[in-house]
Amino acid sequence: MELGSTAAARSAEWIGAPVHEEWGQQRRPLVPSKDPFYLPPAGYEHARPGTVLRSRDVQIAFLGLIPQRIVATQLLYRTTDMDGEPEAAVTTVLIPAERPPHRPTPVLSYQCAIDAISDRCFPSYALRRGAHAVGSLPQVEFLLVAAALAEGWAVSVPDHEGTRGMWGAPDEPGHHVLDGLRAALSAPRLDLDPDAPVGLWGYSGGGLATAWAAEVCADYAPELNIVGAVLGSPVGDLGHTFRRLNGTIYSGLPATVVAALTHMYPDLRRLIDEHATPEGQKMLARIERMTTMHAVLRHVRTDMDDLVDCPLDELLDSPEVQHVFDAIKLGRTAPTPPVLIVQAVHDRIVSVDDIDVLTDAYKSGGSHVTYHRDMFSEHLLLHPMSAPMTLRWLIDRFEGRPLSENTVRTKWPTLLNPMTYRGMWRLGTVAARVVTGRVLHRRPL
After folding, report:
1. Domain of life, per the record (predicted)?
2. Are residues 226 and 96 in the same domain?
3. Which sequence positions are flagged as catalytic?
4. Which of 292, 327, 362 is the last residue of a domain?
5. In tens digits, what is the pLDDT along the chain, a chain of 445 residues?
6. In a domain, 444, yes or no
7. Are residues 48 and 77 in the same domain?
8. Residue 7: how many CB atoms within 10 A of its CB?
């Protein structure tokens, strides 16, 4: 799948005239399901994965309200689904105001925790000015995207669930991430170097998508110069996570995954149709339209056992469900790029035991793994608190600095590391610029 100049020429064939949007001439942006930009042109399936099919410039706004002085381009590109069939996806590519001199601009693919089926949670919609996406996590995670831009990096923010919200699918998120990078690197209007160093970063559901990209990149996109991947609490075993979260304050998350998986696995759909009560069927239909936080708040302590006509454990142990849980579990392939895994010991959403198993699988498969196993933090707190450490690790990878020789497992908490607070000061200045809509200046070398 060599891209290079051939891909750039092929992209140019498909791009056509880019669409430029002016806020004064536009109403509230359309959700993806109603936006013709997301519909691929006829014959797109014959293009190579990563080929740009259409592009447009968009305005980005924090929380949909505060306009950002950032160049943002959306690319519709050809990719593949979990079965290897062609489909299209969208990434939002943000270019820093100041690029590093005398070397290629590093490129980061940041995977948001979409964790929903609703297209209101897709980053390509949620990050836009005027987006009505209350309860979507990408709107908050933009602060970390901005921190990467302030380092002088270009950032690709893909809709890694595709255009259908395939939350929990195996392999497919990795294809979407990698083809989004191919599209960004080959689009002439972005002026990025195809050989630029590439980093991957995501947390929770975004960490899961990042892990899939790290696992499949050697076979799927070997030409990409991926120098490191950060897997933040990457939901290594969705089957275990379902059992753990069902009936808790986070039970809306596994319910959303089940609703999504029924669109991917016909046998699971049949099982749900046979055994879900009328109220269970209605709940799964409603949750497909909810943003992530809406689903969590609406379904606090919902027990799926009350929404089926037989014991839930009986369904979970059935061959149909076990097949799905086995298919969507991480760890089948050890990543070739070095990885930093970040996980809280007292995480109430993702079990540290599952991440221990995933780390050991990667290590035994030959991956270089740095494992930060944080003693004090919880799931939601660890993402921002570990951001300074993550950015330092990515800076080292982009600069080509040597890795430590051995896998590191540490329980030293970020909350007790003075470097965390130096980094948080930097993140605070970036956040202040985002909230006031000012230009993000690159950190001095």
Report:
1. Bacteria
2. yes
3. 204, 347, 379
4. 327
5. 333 333 333 333 444 444 444 444 457 899 999 999 999 999 999 999 999 999 999 999 999 999 999 989 999 999 999 999 999 999 999 999 888 887 899 999 999 999 999 999 999 999 999 999 999 999 999 999 999 999 999 999 999 999 999 999 999 999 999 999 999 999 999 999 999 999 999 999 999 999 999 999 999 999 999 999 999 999 989 999 999 999 999 999 999 999 999 999 999 999 999 999 999 999 999 999 999 999 999 999 999 999 999 999 999 999 999 999 999 999 999 999 999 999 999 999 999 999 999 999 999 999 999 999 999 889 999 999 999 999 999 999 999 999 987 677 777 788 888 788 888 888 899 999 999 999 887 665 4
6. no
7. yes
8. 24
Q: Are residues 88 and 214 in the same domain?
A: yes
Contact 43, 78 (CB under 8 A): no
End-to-end CA distance of the chain: 36
Range of the domain at 413: 4-237+336-436
Report the relative pairing of strands 226-232 and 339-344 from DSSP bridges. Answer: parallel
- The two three-digit tokens of residue 205, written as one number: 């559901």
Tokens representing 212 are 């899939």
Q: 3-class SS at 171? A: coil
Judge whether 422 lies within some domain.
Answer: yes
Q: Tell whether 60 is covered by a domain.
A: yes
Q: Are residues 51 and 71 in the same domain?
A: yes
Radius of gyration of the chain (CA): 21
* Total number of domains constituting the chain: 2
φ, ψ for residue 27, nearest 5 deg: -80, -175
In a domain, 289, yes or no: yes
User: Of 327, 352, 369, at which residue does a domain stop?
Assistant: 327
Dump the DSSP string for 338-358: -EEEEEETT-SSS-HHHHHHH
Per the listing, tokens 């070095």 go with: 338
What span, in angstroms and rounded, lies between the C-alpha atoms of 146 and 395?
15
**18 and 167, same domain (yes or no):** yes
Q: What is the CATH number of the domain that holds 172?
A: 3.40.50.1820
CATH of residue 307: 1.10.260.130
C-alpha distances out from residue 368 to 7, 233, 299, 336, Å: 31, 17, 39, 8
pTM, 2 dp: 0.93
User: Helices 266-275 and 278-287: crossing angle, nearest 10°?
Assistant: 130
Q: Is residue 32 domain-shared with residue 129, that is, in the same domain? A: yes
Answer yes or no: are the C-beta atoms of 75 and 90 closer than 8 Å: yes
What is the rounded distance in angstroms from the CA atom of residue 139 to the CA atom of residue 128? 9
